[in-house]
Amino acid sequence: xxxxxxxxxxxxxxxxxxxxxxxxxxxxxxxxxxxxxxxxxxxxxxxxxxxxxxxxxxxxxxxxxxxxxxxxxxxxxxxxxxxxxxxxxxxxxxxxxxxxxxxxxxxxxxxxxxxxxxxxxxxxxxxxxxxxxxxxxxxxxxxxxxxxxxxxxxxxxxxxxxxxxxxxxxxxxxxxxxxxxxxxxxxxxxxxxxxxxxxxxxxxxxxxxxxxxxxxxxxxxxxxxxxxxxxxxxxxxxxxxxxxxxxxxxxxxxxxxxxxxxxxxxxxxxxxxxxxxxxxxxxxxxxxxxxxxxxxxxxxxxxxxxxxxxxxxxxxxxxxxxxxxxxxxxxxxxxxxxxxxxxxxxxxxxxxxxxxxxxxxxxxxxxxxxxxxxxxxxxxxxxxxxxxxxxxxxxxxxx
Length: 399
Fold this sequence. Notes:
By secondary structure, the chain is α/β, with parallel strands linked by helices. 34% of the residues lie in helices and 25% in strands. The protein contains 12 helices and 23 strands.
């Protein structure tokens, strides 16, 4: 995409990435893509806000060169030092040799650690204002959204908040950068939620603190480092606030049913359990953990109140793909859920449940019901599964 003028002297100069398979080496984006949004301010002093990953350095240079010569840059403002935002820095510095790097105190330390550049960095303070001429920028410290060094940059006259990872999302930009350029925002909202749960959810309390801190600042445009630029900032702020509160408040009255099967016996029971849940009219999300990457499962676990686990015993323990999914739920602090478990076993029962209880202990999940069946489920087993699902669904409705 070509540079896009946001205001008279402010430009989006981002990069669409369709080549990376795993964001952070963990989260699949090969189908959705991701944007790295950089912003150039062409004033008496020239500044760029945030960069992109190392492989996008030449694209960033080309984008800058369509507006100014890179050698004219006075400031490189790094709201966040994670390499998807700073990886292009070394290449840019070869051309922007007079540019001063601006970051927080922790940011300076990280730039030294990642790139050996601490001595070229000027530390900016919370609330400090930098004048570029017509444009004045204020730095807003927002630690742990989502690294300790993170800040945001606010253009006072234009009321633009350059929010870095906050209010961002997966999903490459399909030819336009603004939310109101798209008739249907469902893709970007879904990918913003997946991004939030994958990347930011662990830091939900700092997110809420940042939103509270920003409440007194008039914002007409939110310009994050990934995803859409929001002309209706209240919409993405509301979504982020809602998602962050789910770390401390009850989620929606829905159920996430996770299942995995070696030979189809657990799948047969899963269908019976799902029948019982649906009979009670409770919303249900189904995921096969052997076929669905945990990145797509975590948002449902985050936003839905109840969890049902269906997995067989495997060598005296819980089916490994299911165990991994629960371990990742613990990493992302998805806590306080009521859960029910079922599964088949071949020659010995009990091992899967014991392992399961160990896995959910750090999650503080409440195990409210559980049963195992030997081999393939018979008719009575399936009837039991229907009632098992219905009973759990009633519990979720009435909580």
